[in-house]
Design a protein that fits this description.
By secondary structure, the protein is of the alpha+beta class. The chain is built from 12 helices and 14 strands. A hairpin with a 2-residue loop joins strand 6 and strand 7. It starts with a strand and ends with a helix.
């Protein structure tokens, strides 16, 4: 059986130029060399773990997988084993799968789900129920209750294995596994805490990546919903002035895709006549702690003017969180244009009504004048006709007076009718 901590041979310890030594000297030298070499290996291991851990401090989410596999590779090389993997578990914890792994030359790959509860019942209990690591140095040394586990190891070609449960938020959902397929190895327990720490750093990085991905997906869904509604989402960090907004909003306000925005750069695109009013509205909103809204104009790069309605909700500072103003903006240019057109129409209508009233007045006056004219004309015409009739009647009367006496009666009646008053 090989221990990964290399034992220094006798001739490596003997001082140069010395002759053979007695058995006590040899034994003493072997112990000293073993301690020195173990200390050396331990220091190298600590440096490896420290270096690997430090690499996860500032990595981006898309670098996590690559860095985990690089770390697993270095563990394989340090222990001179055949494969090292990070296993994840399904929700019921009975099945595990390989999330990331590194394989030595010629080592068989492990794919698909592994039924831990059925294939490794002894290890499953220790790992997920008791939360203890499982150290397998020799298959024949495994306890009788681990017979199923031994048979599975033999079928997989495993000769030695180290399985370490990894905790995250008081739960075990991952295991780091180191296996030797070619020879038996011993696994000193002194390294297990450091390997567990490195594995839990892996898990934290993966959870951070998952949370980041979930956040991006949530933002994408929210942005899609906002875009469909014609809304532009934004968030303002009051302390730093940093302004987050959707890509659609950046395009609308004239900023390059992916560019950084802050309050001052945003205010620069606001119409000069509305700029200070908007700044005061932001301050009043944060002081009052109440939702607020503002309408303002922006000047776009193409020199066009657009009207914007923004509604914001303040969030006061809390431990670990700065004061923020979150909100949504909508392009209301069409509405403002419609309102302006309506105002112009109303003004035109009022002017038209006034003109109509004046015209109606003139028409009424003209009608009255025409009626008066017609009345005068009718009166004058009737008077003239009556005058003519009176003249004709007078003539007839004179002629009748010259007529025989028998016509004098009718003549008198005609004369009476002609000059009768009314």
């Amino acid at each position: 059986m090989k221990c990964y901590t290399k034992m220094t041979r006798n001739h490596d310890i003997a001082p140069a130029g010395t002759g053979p030594r007695n058995p006590e000297q040899v034994a003493s030298a072997e112990v000293a060399g073993s301690v020195l070499t173990s200390s050396d290996e331990h220091l190298r291991f600590e440096r490896l773990i420290s270096d690997l851990s430090a690499r996860f401090v500032n990595i981006t989410p898309d670098q996590v997988g690559r860095e985990i596999e690089n770390a697993l590779k270095q563990i394989v090389e340090f222990f001179q084993v055949d494969r090292c993997g990070l296993l994840g578990t399904r929700p019921d914890k009975r099945f595990a799968y390989v999330m990331h792994a590194w394989y030595g030359k010629g080592a068989a790959r492990v794919a698909g789900d592994i039924n831990l509860a059925d294939l490794f019942p002894h290890n499953y209990d220790k790992l997920f129920v008791q939360g203890l690591p499982v150290i397998t140095t020799k298959l024949e040394n495994m306890p009788p209750e681990a017979d199923t586990d031994r048979q599975t190891y033999a079928a997989m070609g495993v000769r030695s294995s180290l399985d370490i449960p990894l905790f995250f938020r008081d739960h075990i959902a991952h295991v780091i596994v180191i296996q030797s397929l070619r020879e038996e190895l011993s696994w000193p327990e002194i390294y297990i805490p450091r390997l567990r720490l490195l594995g839990e750093i892996f898990v934290i990085a993966l959870e951070r990546r998952r949370a980041d991905q979930a956040l991006r997906e949530s933002e994408e869904r929210l942005s899609l919903a906002a875009d469909s509604a014609g809304a532009m989402l934004w968030g303002l960090n009051i302390d730093s002035g940093h302004l987050w907004t959707t890509e659609k909003a950046k395009e609308f306000f004239g900023f390059a895709p992916g560019s950084e925005m802050d309050l001052e750069s945003f205010l620069n695109v606001v119409h000069p006549e509305d700029r200070e009013k908007l700044r005061r509205t932001i301050g009043e909103t944060m002081r009052s702690g109440r939702d607020n809204s503002a309408e303002y104009r922006i000047a776009r790069p193409d020199k066009s003017i657009r009207w914007v309605l923004s509604r914001g909700r303040p969030y006061p500072a809390s431990p670990g969180e700065p004061a923020r103003l979150m909100g949504v903006s909508i392009d209301v240019t069409e509405r403002k244009m419609a309102e302006e057109a309506l105002r112009e129409s109303e003004t035109a209508l009022r002017y038209s009504q006034k003109n109509l009233q004046m015209l109606a007045g003139r028409l009424i006056s003209a009608q009255e004048e025409e009626l008066r004219r017609l009345s005068r004309e009718l009166h004058d015409d009737l008077t003239q006709r009556l005058a003519v009739l009176a003249i004709e009647a007078s003539k007839l009367e004179l002629e009748l007076n010259k007529a025989p006496q028998s016509l004098s009666g009718p003549s008198q009646k005609i004369s009476q009718m002609t000059y009768s008053p009314g």
